[in-house]
Amino acid sequence: MSNVRGAITIAGTDPSGGAGIQADLKTFQELEAFGMSVITSVVAQNTTGVRGMEHMPLSIIDHQLAAVLEDMPVHALKTGMIATTDMMKLVASRIQQAGVPYVMDPVMIAQSGDALMDEASRSALRETLLPLATVVTPNVPEAEAITGELVETEADMRKVAKIIVHEFGSKSVVVKGGHMEGEALDLFYDGEDFHTLVTPRFDTKHTHGTGCTFSAAITAELAKGKSLLEAVQTGKRFIALAIEHTLGIGHGQGPTNHWAYRHHQHKLEEIR
Ligand SMILES: Nc1ncnc2c1ncn2[C@@H]1O[C@H](COP(=O)(O)OP(=O)(O)OP(=O)(O)O)[C@@H](O)[C@H]1O
Ligand SMILES: Cc1ncc(COP(=O)(O)O)c(N)n1
């Protein structure tokens, strides 16, 4: 029996390599989970914004999912950009079939401001995929869109975390504070206890794909059998180092450095 641990990302693409499927596969590889992918939408984008997109037909999304699930060892999966309600329903039924830990990154809008999900599908996301999630990783605007609550303080983060778990049925949640002021503070809530994940805020505009990379790192760790808390802590370390050791490429908001964790793990004291 092989002891290879496999992870699937179900998401849209980023040909410039910083976000979406490409960021997820790089992250899986760095953390030594065997990476597999199901493409939901092809997005023509780079560090300056989105130029166009094509959603894949439902039939080919389903064929991709069936092909990997029937053949390959899958120990965890994640979703990123799932643009329409019909896609969400299809993906939800396959996730139920897979029966492995599921990390949901509720991607709605790219950092460039371009919409990656049609507006009508926001409530569908809450009803179809959210209740299946082992952990969901909203940023502040996404947490606001999911709950209808304003999020301005750490107390607000705690409030929406409780709503997301107890009212909408995700097993746990990380409310990401990347869009807030001060230290980069994320709040993990497992349905009973809160844990803060804190690093310094690095002064950089190169944060394209931070959410994708963070959730992919959590997925890889869950695929390897780590506990939820260990997985989110490693995810936070992975993304913090990837932001700190920026590559400085692209003409807009550049990608993070997916190999920084491999090179700089010894410098983790500042992460608590
Ligand atoms: N400047 C920064 N310095 C340190 N950590 C950061 C910074 N910006 C974001 N982070 C961290 O990166 C992770 C992703 O957070 P963020 O809130 O940016 O997600 P997101 O908005 O979904 O990402 P994306 O940019 O992909 O949309 C979180 O752990 C957050 O705290
Ligand atoms: C296919 C895809 N999925 C997710 C994001 C979000 O990443 P960001 O908000 O950093 O642009 C993206 N830009 N593209």
UniProtKB/TrEMBL annotation:
Coiled coil: none annotated. InterPro entries: HMP/HMP-P_kinase_dom (IPR004399), PM/HMP-P_kinase-1 (IPR013749), Ribokinase-like (IPR029056). Pathway: Cofactor biosynthesis; thiamine diphosphate biosynthesis; 4-amino-2-methyl-5-diphosphomethylpyrimidine from 5-amino-1-(5-phospho-D-ribosyl)imidazole: step 2/3; Cofactor biosynthesis; thiamine diphosphate biosynthesis; 4-amino-2-methyl-5-diphosphomethylpyrimidine from 5-amino-1-(5-phospho-D-ribosyl)imidazole: step 3/3. Keywords: ATP-binding, Kinase, Nucleotide-binding, Thiamine biosynthesis, Transferase. One of its GO terms (biological process) is thiamine biosynthetic process. Signal peptide: none annotated. GO terms for cellular component: cytosol. It is an enzyme of class 2 (transferase). Its EC number is 2.7.1.49, 2.7.4.7. Residues 14-257 form the Pyridoxamine kinase/Phosphomethylpyrimidine kinase domain. It comes from the Bacteria. One of its GO terms (molecular function) is hydroxymethylpyrimidine kinase activity. NCBIfam families: HMP-P_kinase. Belongs to the ThiD family. This is Hydroxymethylpyrimidine/phosphomethylpyrimidine kinase.
